[in-house]
Structure formats: structure tokens, C-alpha cells
Design a protein that fits this description.
CATH topology: Methane Monooxygenase Hydroxylase, Chain G, domain 1
Number of domains: 1
């Protein structure tokens, strides 16, 4: 694929990430202790969305050749992976889920 295709994937991923951050902030304002089942669904949805966005940024990072863009994408990718790990920790420990079901 051409550079233009991956630049478009990168732009789309940025737009998706903006929406995901807004959804994440909305969840942060809610009181999660009142309804654990509902908060569990929110966190699971966020977790799945972050996995999708990490894959898209990883694909862009792997295929884009320009070093300046790669540095920026790497920072965004590391931030998304960090948030993904935070959500995983929240699912496993705080919402009383486990790795095994």
C-alpha cells in the first residue's frame, strides 16, 4: 500500500482516539461503585476499543517510513498501550474479574 493510505489510516485513528478519549472521560466522571455491572460493561467496551486503536496505530507505525511521523506515532502508541494496561488492571483487580473464567 502507498504512503497516502497509511496517512489516511493514521488520520482516521486520530479521530477515533479523540472520540475514545471523550468516552473515557465520561466514564471517569461516573460513580462506578453504585452499579458494578454497568461499569464493568463500560470498561470492557473501552478495553476493546483501545485494543482496536492500538492495532491501527501499530500498523501505521510499522508501515510509515518518515522518521518525524514515526516518533509521534510511537508516543501516541505508547500512551494507548499504557491506558490499555490500566484498563486491564482495573478489570482484573478492581472490578473483581480474573484472567480465567
Amino acid at each position: 500500500m502507498s504512503t497516502e493510505v497509511y496517512n489516511q489510516i493514521w488520520r482516521d485513528a486520530q479521530q477515533t482516539l479523540r472520540g475514545l478519549i471523550a468516552k473515557d472521560e465520561k466514564l471517569g466522571r461516573k460513580d462506578r461503585d453504585i452499579d458494578k455491572q454497568r461499569s464493568l460493561q463500560w470498561v470492557l467496551r473501552l478495553y476493546a476499543d483501545y485494543i482496536r486503536i492500538v492495532r491501527r496505530f501499530d500498523e501505521c507505525y510499522d508501515q510509515i517510513v518518515q522518521p518525524q511521523k514515526r516518533i509521534l506515532i510511537k508516543k501516541i502508541l505508547e500512551g494507548c498501550i499504557g491506558r490499555l494496561l490500566e484498563l486491564k488492571h482495573e478489570l482484573v483487580s478492581e472490578l473483581e474479574m480474573s484472567h480465567y473464567r
